[in-house]
Amino acid sequence: MDKTTVRVLLVDADTNGISRFTRMLHAQSAPGFHVATARTIQAAERHLKHNEADAILLNLFGWEPGGLAALALVQALAPGTPVVVTVPSEEEQIALKALKHGAHEYVLTDQVYDTLLVRSIRHALERQQAEAKRRSEDRAVHLSERRYRALFEQSRDALYITDSSGSIVEGNAALIELFGYGIDELYGRQLEVLFAVPADWNRLQTELHGRGYARDVEVRMRRRDGVELWCLLSAARRIDDEVEVRGYQGIIHDITARKQAEERLRHNSLHDPLTGLPNRALFLDRLGTALSRWRREPQHGCAVLFMDLDRFKLINDSLGHGVGDALLMRVAGALATCVRSHETVARLGGDEFAILLDVAQRNDAQRAAQRIQQQLANAFELQGQTMFTSASIGIAYPDSVELQPGELVRNADIAMYRAKKAGPGRWAVFAPSMHTTAINLLELETDMRSAVARGEFTLHYQPIVALPDQTIMGLEALIRWRHPRRGSLLPHEFISIAEENGMIVNIGWWVLREACTQGRALLESSPPGTCPYIAVNLSSRQVALPDLADGILDILGATGLPGSLLSLEITESSLVSNADTAGRTLARLRDAGVRICIDDFGTGYSSLAYLHSLPIDSLKIDRSFIRLLGSSSDRSELVRTIITLAARLGISTVAEGIETTAQLRHLERLGSGSAQGFLFSRPVDAGALQGMLARIQSPAGWA
Q1: How far is CA 440 from CA 407, 433, 481, 490, in A?
Q2: Which residues pair with 235 in a beta bridge?
Q3: Low pLDDT (below 70) residues in the chain
Q4: Amino acid 699: pLDDT
Q5: 608-622 burial string, b = 16+ CB within 10 Å, else e?
Q6: Residue 116 in 3-state DSSP?
Q7: H or E stretch including 97?
Q8: Less Cβ around it within 10 Å: N or C end of the chain?
Q9: CA 215 to CA 208: how far, in whole Å?
Q10: What is the pLDDT of residues 346-355, one digit of tens each?
């Protein structure tokens, strides 16, 4: 025993016995004893709850219950603690029974002396330690065997053992399940026959013979039903005591699902999930290969078509994204019929497609574009609806050996935008001048982002005159950009860019605030009742804003301009595309006295009947109708109809684009209420506005 002090709990109902055994133990110096006493089983329990004991000295008699029952109670209180029982000589048979029930030693109370008592306790401790060690070793061996067998039998991986000839002599359930053989069929079968590719078996053998083991070797194996599996195999030699190879043991892990997942990930990383077509990454890779071939063999030309569906957003907005996705899939199928099997059709995103063609002549790509346009001209039946679509196509040929795939796609994209500006269903071939134009537009967009902060925008005003007296009733605010390098830019040179990049919203708020501020200054300088209203154009993006009415009313409040002196000009298409919010917004503004005017009427989608349901004050008849008055394509009857129906609905009309006296006289005969155009005045800046108003107080003032 290593301990120098042994903690003994003396449990005895006899006071004399306690005193006697305590003296005997205290008389010993090696080892020393620390003795605690308990005269009842309950007292022993209380002691053991808070203290440990190395050994228990228990008198089997003297209380109820006694004998073996007392032993059982004490063993339950201190499991694993060696117990030495004391009995009188005539009860030695009880002591022997106690040994069978777990007591470690016994002493006879009428024959014991101090050294005998100490030796009995020491023997009990040594026996307890030996038993604990043996139980631990037995448990370890048993546990090791159980773990090995459990690992072998319950492993999800297939485990096998072969003899020196390579025949399978043992395998677990996972091995049988993996390969689909019965146990009798599998045992005795050569492991080699399970390999699908002989080269994989040879590679495994090379590693085993060279190093004695193989770790995580990817191999292809075959099930009994012929299905090929991807497996990760590890193996090692089995060597007996004489260092003779008795065979091999190994693990086979099925990685087929992982390989399939990797293949799906690889496929998904290179293909569009909706249409299954190659995506941008795969398209650029194939285009790079085609360009490399063209550089080596110029006779093998290539071309890129960049295609964008016309008005696809309208389909999504009106019929839903489900129909839009269905159309994209049908278009993808249609495009596949327009190219050869070795050529590539890809979806780059949204409604944009790219096509890589092999071309022998310069105009081969143009003919392909025509085939595509003809194919898309056919009707598509989608979810019970007949649908037609068209596409704008840009075509680009490589013109330099230094040209990179991304640059060729960019060139085709630029050409596509040129085609789209010409109208739906068009195609255009890239020219270097298009790139120059695109660069200029990009620079213009970059400059635009700080133009408001730099104070580069300004407003000009063009009068709206009442007919027939030609007095000024309103002023349309028209934005100009005083560009530091390009000079004064008109709206058509930059507004479309602002619409595309979303900056039109911030610019629109600036125009509204500036026009209201200048309108308030005009009100203060005008005689009572003579101040014209200010007309401000709203973009479709502004009309779609949910807080548009709040923003306009806040500006009116901040500038002090009465709502009756503000007219908002909105296009028909803006109302149609934002029908849900437009009605509520216009009603709030109309309640504040703000005028509502429909701009460019006749070029959009709405009707007078539809407009009658909205709080509309006036219509601007588009200049394209006015320009034809008196010509061979005279639209007088159409203009007369618009003016007449609008009047019946209580809506006034403004004819814009008046440039000649003949047009003015024609409009007066048709009954137009007001007009606007260069005949009266070109737009003037705010500084010249006061002078124009002071000069023009009568019809003669326009001369």
Answers
A1: 17, 11, 16, 16
A2: 214, 250
A3: 1-3, 29-31, 138, 140-153, 240-245, 577-580, 603-612, 630-635, 695-703
A4: 47
A5: beebeebbbebbbbb
A6: helix
A7: helix 92-100
A8: C
A9: 10
A10: 999 999 999 9
Residue 571's DSSP bridge partners are 599
pLDDT of the residue at 556: 95
Please count the helices (runs of H) and the strands (runs of E) in the chain: 26, 27
Q: How far apart are the first and last CA of the chain?
A: 130
In the prediction, which pLDDT does 1 show? Answer: 46
8-state DSSP, 210: H
The rounded distance, in Å, linking the Cα atoms of 29 and 571 is 112
Beta strands in 29-76 (DSSP E): 32-38, 55-59
| Token duo for residue 24 | 């005997």
pLDDT of residue 604: 59
Closest to 356 measured CA to CA, from 370, 332, 340, 367: 340
Beta bridge partners of 557: none
- Are 326 and 382 spatial neighbours (Cβ–Cβ below 8 Å)? yes
CA quadruple 419, 422, 424, 427: dihedral, nearest 10: -30
The pLDDT assigned to 242 comes to: 56
Beta strands 245-254 and 158-162, pairing class: antiparallel
**In contact, 223 and 179? CB cutoff 8 Å:** yes
Question: CA torsion angle for 607, 613, 616, 619 (degrees, to 10)?
Answer: 10
pLDDT digits over 614-652, tens only? 888 999 988 888 887 766 566 678 888 888 888 888 899
Please, what is the Cα angle at 535 between 647 and 694, to 5 degrees? 105
What DSSP letter does each residue of 555-585 carry, written as one string?
Answer: HHHHHT--GGGEEEEEEHHHHHHTHHHHHHH
